[in-house]
């Protein structure tokens, strides 16, 4: 089954084709992502109306490009998947409208995909993908969650952030130290030049039971350290390293606790922050020490992309799940409400 996937939940336009006839990494026939970073940089953050308009401008050309790279005609697609939520309502409606129109014109089944389920399942596209049950860490600019995955569509929330997501904390911390938008990746790169241990910040909420996160206080600590420093480039790098170490250690501590709580030895990590090299190394070491393993998608599939939507949609379409012809999106959507999928990969 060849599924066209469309992602338009925020400021990336993603399109991909996934072919279930070739499981694993080989099933991804083609994928392309257009980022709106340059468009929103002037405003220091995503402007929803501009995001929607840019999706309108780029989506159909990206569909044509991706089909050409996959070596397929549009009438050779067997199904359509699109991000139905959560996300910016206008941006979601652009992707959903295009997806539903294509499905109607071609008389194909279409299914709306939960954006975070797409992230959660992205590592399962790899050749060494684990089978459920496992624990998933969803860590991005909008979400930081620990989820027990008992099966596809069978999710139990173990813990989540009480305020800022980890990626959001990276971006806000970078901004308060004068780095341009989006500052998170620049802060992580700068941390590589920092001196470990020169600035030591708290590992929030690790001194108490539970699996929830909180990163807002960590931002305040960084702000006070920055304002009281000489604000040189080396100091900026040292503070960035201290901040990154605090976030990575906090995530690793909570992940180990989640594995113990769930009785699992496999941690699956998805979302934009999942591309962080220090986080990957820390979680791999932690999992190996426990006799388990940590699984990640390839870095290009950590941020928002159409591949994860095509793959997640393919699993549901193969199981006979699809939506009616209405253009329907869900800006706020609890992943626990999703129906289970009975079939394997």
TrEMBL record:
Substrate binds at residues 138-142, 171, 184, 276. It comes from the Bacteria. Keywords: Acyltransferase, Cytoplasm, Iron, Metal-binding, Transferase, tRNA processing. It catalyses: L-threonylcarbamoyladenylate + adenosine(37) in tRNA = N(6)-L-threonylcarbamoyladenosine(37) in tRNA + AMP + H(+). Fe cation binds at residues 115, 119, 304. Residues 28-311 form the Gcp-like domain. Its main location: cytoplasm. Required for the formation of a threonylcarbamoyl group on adenosine at position 37 (t(6)A37) in tRNAs that read codons beginning with adenine. Is involved in the transfer of the threonylcarbamoyl moiety of threonylcarbamoyl-AMP (TC-AMP) to the N6 group of A37, together with TsaE and TsaB. TsaD likely plays a direct catalytic role in this reaction. GO terms for cellular component: cytoplasm. Binds 1 Fe(2+) ion per subunit. GO terms for molecular function: iron ion binding; tRNA N(6)-L-threonylcarbamoyladenine synthase activity. SUPFAM superfamilies: Actin-like ATPase domain (SSF53067). Belongs to the KAE1 / TsaD family. It is found in: Cytoplasm. Pfam families: TsaD. Its cofactor is Fe(2+). This is tRNA N6-adenosine threonylcarbamoyltransferase. Its EC number is 2.3.1.234. GO terms for biological process: tRNA threonylcarbamoyladenosine modification.
